[in-house]
Amino acid sequence: MLLVAPADFEQELVDRAVAQLGGTIVPQPEGSIIDEVLISSDEIMSERDPWPNFFNWFHADTRRHIVEREVLLSPGEPWDAERALETERNLRRMVIFAVVRVVAIRRDGPPGHVSLLVTTKDRWSLRLNSEFTIVGNLVQYLRLRPAEMNFLGRNVQAAADVLMKLDTIDFGQYLLFPRLFGQKFRLAETASLVFNRNTARLEGSTGYVLVDRPFYSLGQRWAWAAFGQWNSRRQRVFRGATVWELESPSAGLVPFEYDARSFSVEANATRRFGTHWLLDVTLGGFGYDSVARPPGELSAEQGEFLRREYLPRSESAAGLAARLRFFEARFIKLRNIDTLEISEDFQLGPLVQSATRWALPLPFTSTPGVPTGNGFLETTLSVRYRWYFGGDLLTVSASGTARFITGGLPQNRRYLFEVVNYSPLFEGGRLYTRLVADIRQNDLNNTQVLLGGGNGLRGTAPDELTGRNYLLGNFEYRTRPFEIATVYTSIVLFYDVGSAFADHPTFIHTTGIGLRIMLPQFNQEVLRVNLGLVIGGGPASLSRLVTTLSEPQGLGPDFLNNPP
Q1: What whole-number distance in Å separates Cα of residue 282 and Cα of residue 222?
Q2: What is the CATH number of the domain that holds 44?
């Protein structure tokens, strides 16, 4: 079938809805009085889509009131472009919608009056929700979450959760009520049992419970959250398909595995100040008990080596936490960035976040003989700035964290720097660039970065490089998306360079070609298939196929999340 340049998928839905309602779009409605709020919901499988229409029989369309309660403008109010765009963003963040557009139209009303039209297209809600990373013939990670993401059209999610790693399979469930009892409260919970893949024996459990009132709009002044989680399981660190065997000078080869158990609780409240320049102030308390210990089958010497050099620190503590977040309420809506033809929202300007935790050790610990740790003051500062000019989207982020204890050097020092750039369109495509540096010093958790395969160096063996620090660069030329009956595809040429290291970096270079596939009726994520080759030979010079539903990245500065 011939590949063609895509039509405006979203605009076609809007034009069809406007025609059915017998109106015309008002391009500049600012100040006009809103007479009514109209909701137009397109079928998941319409005549233009390549999938059989009988799929619609098995899907409950999102109920009208689910959309209406997210609209931030009401009849009788003047049109406000910023609040209309915020309504779009709020609805677009809900996974139940493939498309959301908010426009003003004029029907039969008097001059100066408009109707607010919300056009939506549901996403198929009865779904498998798979996530995976496959490098060559090695399935590193597979998650299947058969779920109903929009139960009875009420935006309630219920799912089974099967997570397969190289050593374990987790069987669990997940429930999410984004609007509990129709109010602005959210309830989420999940729980899983962990089984060993080889022996089928139960190895632990994991889960969490969250109850909160998040920010549903920029004008909201208060938010709060209460959260609890636990994780008890055998942890194994793999390099490729086998458990990483560590070389001890005196104890020989030691498998990198340990028993981990943790429990934590947290509660906080947030006050928001400002309108265009926003400041969120969060205060709360927390407590946790975390233990990592060598397996009983290791010798005392092997266990001591593992604890001293590689295991995360065991400690129990409780304390107070404060967090500040400052950002500009300036947003832009773009397409053909990461999700091909579906609109994406980006906050422009600064985002500054600071978090401080003060904690004292608890007078008990889960395991006799394991120290509870010291009292500490821990602080993190992250700064991000995002520009959009001339079709170029540039994001620069930096973050640093440290833990301070009485009479000692700062611990857990970590410094992150990231640059991400999407160039303007040229020659039918755009350039994507990502540069990351992640440096750790005096790390109590003995963190080990595993780099290679699906997490940043496409073409290398899985987890080829190891170290406490890493440097990574990803460079891509992405063609414009092509449409095959609303299935969008793009071709990628890439070059990766990176190193995971303790003291001095040694870089590996890879290059290759990739394919991106987007099915807006079914997924928010883009399927990414890459074939990479190491440049200049080395320990992993064979071509490797990498298939994933995530960007080619390692441990980026995750503290920097997008504001609502």
Answers
A1: 10
A2: 3.10.20.310
Average pLDDT over residues 173-188: 88
Is the pLDDT score of 541 beyond 60?
no
Name the nearest CA neighbour of 411 among 434, 443, 382.
443
Q: Which of the listed residues 106, 122, 138 is the one where a domain comes to its end?
A: 122
- Residue 13: give the domain boundaries: 9-122
Please report, rounded to a whole number, the percentage of residues in the chain having pLDDT higher than 90: 40
**Residues near 396 by Cβ (< 8 Å), separated by ≥ 6?**
384, 385, 386, 418, 419
Inform me whether the pLDDT recorded for 306 exceeds 60. Answer: yes
Phi and psi torsions of 34, nearest 5°? -85, 120
- Is residue 381 within 8 A of residue 399, CB to CB? The reply is yes
Alpha-carbon distance values, 84 to 34, 71, 79, 118, 295 (Å): 12, 8, 8, 10, 57
Phi, psi at 494, each rounded to 5°: -130, 160
Q: How far apart are CA 424 and CA 387, in angstroms?
A: 13
Q: Contact at 8 Å (CB) between 122 and 98?
A: yes
What tokens were used for 517?
């596939």
Is there a domain that residue 313 lies in? yes
- Note whether residue 172 is domain-resident: no
The percent helix, strand, coil of the chain (3-state, each to 5) is 10, 55, 35
Residue 529 placed within a domain = yes
CA dist 14 to 99, 360, 452, Å? 10, 57, 43
Give how far Cα 213 sits from Cα of 188, 216, 323, 498, Å: 12, 8, 17, 41
pLDDT (tens digit, 9 = 90+) per residue, 349-392? 999 999 999 998 877 654 444 444 568 899 999 999 999 999 99
Helix (H) or strand (E) holding 68: helix 64-68
- Pick from 156, 266, 278, 176: which is nearest to 217 by CA? 278
Report the C-alpha gap between 478 and 482 in whole angstroms: 11
Give the pairing of strands 113-122 and 33-42.
parallel
- Integer Cα distance of 119 and 105 in angstroms: 12
Question: End-to-end alpha-carbon separation of the chain, Å?
Answer: 41
Which of 523, 526, 521 lies closest to 548 in space, CA to CA?
Answer: 526
User: Does 227 lie in the same domain as 105?
Assistant: no
* 259 and 234 Cβ atoms separated by less than 8 Å: yes
- Can you say how many angstroms the Cα of residue 425 is from the centroid of all Cα atoms in its chain? 26
pTM: 0.78
Residues 6+ apart with CB under 8 A from 108: none
Let me know whether 371 and 268 are in one domain: yes
Estimate to the nearest angstrom the gap between the alpha carbon of 111 and the chain centroid.
45
Instruction: Using the 3D structure, point to which of 93, 122, 151 is the last residue of a domain.
Output: 122
- Tell me the C-alpha distance between 96 and 60, whole Å: 11
